[in-house]
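Rotation project, supervised by the postdoc (A.L.). Task for the rotation student: set up a whole-complex structure prediction and record inputs and outputs verbatim in this book. Inputs entered:
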Amino acid sequence: NAGVTQTPKFQVLKTGQSMTLQCAQDMNHNSMYWYRQDPGMGLRLIYYSASEGTTDKGEVPNGYNVSRLNKREFSLRLESAAPSQTSVYFCASSDTAGPYNEQFFGPGTRLTVL
Amino acid sequence: QQQVKQSPQSLIVQKGGISIINCAYENTAFDYFPWYQQFPGKGPALLIAIRPDVSEKKEGRFTISFNKSAKQFSLHIMDSQPGDSATYFCAASMIEGTYKYIFGTGTRLKVLA
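Outputs recorded:
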């Protein structure tokens, strides 16, 4: 099992460009999440999908859109990138059926917006 | 109400020493408190977790102490090793509902050899 995979690993964008971060999990998990990690800010939830077909905003959704393509895949789109979106982005998944909802994280995408 | 406050921001400990990281929360609806460990260039991974029906949970050298009345919980790393050098995040969640985590801001631990 690969767990949670993310592409790309690194990306440099110019202000105003758009891009989509891809995430896939092979653990048959129901829930998926997108976080951003910034120095001194910890991990902040951008969007999440509790189950296939549903998405909801997290703490910092502005400037982002998401698509839960199927049970395995959850993508994050930046329509018009801004320097404030320079960050490390993590995708995670969890099996909501269990009593302990451990979240499994991918390796991250390091995004720089110039 | 939704914040989880974590301290210290960074910590340096000698090999064999005890590392202690503290977290505090406000929302009494939180009922699941995990700790995640993150090595440089990697995603966070679950280290240990506790529910508020117990005051302490131990797994090897790692212990969570939980004080429900004070709304505080802490991670103790006994006999700290250089391999423990990483960033540690506490988090809080509600089992019932959407399983969202609220993370603390992280503690960068360095264990000196």
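Student's summary: Chain A has no helices and eleven strands.
Supervisor addendum: The mean pLDDT of chain A is 93.
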